[in-house]
Structures are given as structure tokens and as C-alpha cells.
Amino acid sequence: MPKHDPIDSELVRELANLVTETGLSEIEVEKGDLRIRVVRRIEPVSVQVAAPVAAAPAVAAAPPAPGPGAAPERGKAHPGAVPSPMVGTAYLRPSPEAKAFVEVGARVEAGDKLLLIEAMKTFNEIVAPRAGTVAAIFVEDGQPVEYGEALLAID
Q1: 70-154 adopts what CATH topology?
Q2: Percent helix / strand / coil, the chain, rounded to 5
Q3: What integer best gives the mean pLDDT of the chain?
Q4: How far apart (Å, rounded) are the C-alpha atoms in residues 154 and 13?
Q5: Radius of gyration over alpha carbons of the chain, in Å?
Q6: Which of 56, 81, 117, 141 is 20 to 30 A removed from 35 (C-alpha atoms)?
Q7: How far is CA 26 from CA 36, 59, 75, 141, 149, in A?
Q8: pTM: predicted TM-score of the whole model, two decimal places
């Protein structure tokens, strides 16, 4: 019977902290025949609206051309904005030739897949925090996104 080194609890803590700090959903390390996998459950992010906003036509207007450093601000003022829970690359479709998960005007239910964010070769599903209609999509397929950046808006 092969003899294993005792599990390094400090390594497990470091991996758990790394997963939390980077926004990853999981990380796995392997050394010899010892494998440690740390998985974090990502909850959908919901946005609470304090008062209804009457300026709906502004959503239909084309977004301003992004300038340097403008991407994280895009869409933040929208009350139905769905923010990115992590840093990574946004993908609006499961593969380059596939149809997008959602489009502007699509009806979504809470928990429906909206897009993927790839971080460190792991694809993380971003799901609708509530039911509604997709009012705007603020990111493009393959675009890098920052933590808290508005991905899309659900009315």
C-alpha cells in the first residue's frame, strides 16, 4: 500500500484563499498521486432597486464609444445591471459557432445561464439573479471583464 504524506492543511488554506481572492470557482493541484481540489460555490448576484427609473429610452440608445478605462463604468448606472463576480474573459456563447445564451429582448428566469466567464482556464456560468427581460448587453464575446463591471441589464 503506497504511503501518502499527511495533507498539508496550510496548503489547503492557501488554495481556498486563492480561490476566494481571484474569484475562481475551483482550483486543483496534483503532486505525485496526491490530488487536492478546492471548490467554491458561486451564488448569483442580485441587484436591489430602491425606486423605479423612468428613463427607459436611455437603455435603447447606443452606448458611448468606450475610452481608456471606461469599460468598468459601462452600464453601472442601470438599475438592472448584472455585475461580473470576477475578473476574466466573457463569452456570450458556449462555442464560437453556437447561438448566444441570451440576446437583447430575451425573457429570462432566475437561474438561467446568461454567459460564461473564463478565469484561469475554468469556465464559470453567470446566471440570471432574477426573472425579467434582457434590456442591454454591455460586453462583447471574448472581451476581458473586471470584477463589478456591468455585464448586462435585466429589466
Answers
A1: OB fold (Dihydrolipoamide Acetyltransferase, E2P) (2.40.50)
A2: 15, 30, 55
A3: 77
A4: 37
A5: 19
A6: 117
A7: 11, 35, 28, 23, 21
A8: 0.53
